[in-house]
Design goal:
Blueprint lengths: L1 E5 L4 E5 L12 H18 L2 E7 L4 E6 L3 H10 L1
Antiparallel strand pairs: 1-2, 2-4, 3-4
Length: about 80
């Protein structure tokens, strides 16, 4: 998992490791499950998600939160 700070320190790019990993998401149902989990995690942790890309073996997300610890908490639930 990569957590990279953007702009003013409250915006982060998160990328799950996808290099040389097997395909995790195979059909539309798998993608729906991931979208639902992201919605739940962002709501529960009070994080704003500006953008995301769900690929078959990894995710990219741009989030806004109050501090780095909150961003790190989000990465732990992924």
């Amino acid at each position: 998992m990569e957590l990279k700070e953007l702009f003013d320190g409250n915006c982060y790019h998160i990328c799950t490791n996808g290099n040389n990993t097997p395909i995790l998401l195979r059909d539309k149902e798998d993608y729906k499950v991931v979208c639902n989990y992201l919605a739940i995690f962002t709501w529960k942790l009070k994080i704003q998600m500006l953008a995301y890309t769900i690929m078959s073996n990894h995710l990219h997300m741009i989030i806004v939160c109050t501090n780095r610890e909150q961003a790190e908490s989000f990465t732990r639930v992924l």
